[in-house]
Design a protein that fits this description.
122 residues; alpha/beta; Rossmann fold; 30% helix
Length: 122
């Protein structure tokens, strides 16, 4: 069995749909492919972030998002995307932040916590 730790940058429609899909398909992925997944971090542009090396309760994260992020799960501990990535133990990062559908560039919004990764090279 292979365990993957995932982090999500963006928890809007796409990030939440991905989380629901992970929850719904977890049994199939484990049975058919020997894969298990744990989400260890979620960063949002406006509602802060959450990191838990042991794994985030995705049902709780989805419920909080549905309630308008009014709960206590998401905080403001990481002022930008790069500090979130540096702090989050993950094997893979799924970048789901909003983009302009015409250009594919990151959509600029006022008041966001996460900054662009344009200066990062891998």
């Amino acid at each position: 069995m292979r365990q993957f730790r995932l982090s999500l940058v963006g928890f809007g429609n796409v990030g939440q749909a991905f989380a629901r899909l992970l929850l719904r398909k977890a049994g199939n992925l484990e049975r058919d492919f020997g894969l298990t997944f744990t989400v260890t971090g979620i960063a949002t542009g406006r509602h802060g972030s959450v990191i838990d090396p042991a794994g985030i309760d995705l049902d709780k994260a989805l419920a909080e998002a549905f309630a308008g992020f009014s709960g206590d799960l998401f905080g403001k501990d990481h002022p930008d995307t790069l500090s979130f990535i540096a702090a989050c133990p993950a094997d893979a990062l799924l970048e789901n932040s909003p983009v302009d559908p015409r250009t594919g560039e990151r959509r600029r919004r006022g008041g966001g916590n996460c900054r662009s990764m344009e200066s990062v090279s891998f």
